[in-house]
Amino acid sequence: MNKSLLIPYIKELDNKTLDEAMPVIEERGARCSIDSLNWPNEYPYHPLTVVNAAHSDKAIYLDFFVRCNYLRAVNSENNTPVWEDSSVSFFIRPFPDGDYWNFDVNCIGAINAARRTTRRPVERLTDAEIGTIERYASCGYQPFREVEGLFAWNVVIRIPLALIGVEYTGAPLLMKGNLCKCATGTSQPHFLTWNPVGTLHPEFHAPESFGDIILE
What we know:
The strands form two sheets. Strands 1, 5, 6, 7, 8, 11, 12 and 13 form an eight-stranded mixed β-sheet that branches. This protein has a five-stranded antiparallel β-sheet with strand order 2-3-4-10-9, covered by helices on one side. The longest helix is centred in the N-terminal third of the chain and has 11 residues, at 18-28. The model has no long low-confidence stretch (mean pLDDT 97). Helices cover 7% and strands 43% of the residues. By secondary structure, it is mainly beta.
């Protein structure tokens, strides 16, 4: 099954701070669920995860909301293994048969980002490039060890279109990608995706399983 996500164009986002943009994205953005449990026998845990998405002339905005039973944020530096923490991911391939980018972000806003053709080799984004990605984390920005309970958190990222080699000219842009949720180092490790992945074992780096992501 190949899903499609139409991300609406909201011009005024370019004139707002991220704090100001968040309620606009929630009200007028496209909403989807990260709810494909592709490997239920190995990893049955299914935390609620939804995303509100929008774009402007200059950037893509993604607001991830999660409810979970364990919360972990050990990694706080760029390009550290944030996927071990309570984290979400955005995979995007702007052009057919071209490279794709993955942006992994944990619940305190630490980002691991790279450009790839396949999983290997990998071209990590530099600190300067990652620094162009604005972010908001409801959990704050300081690392902490795993805690157990009932948690609701969100993280918002603003990815410049120029960072992925895209220029928006007003016409719809058809791209490929996926949205993911994982936390491999927690007491309830899990692997969820928006568009289903057909691999035998957990694997987010699967461009053949990317869905359609359209900038309106």
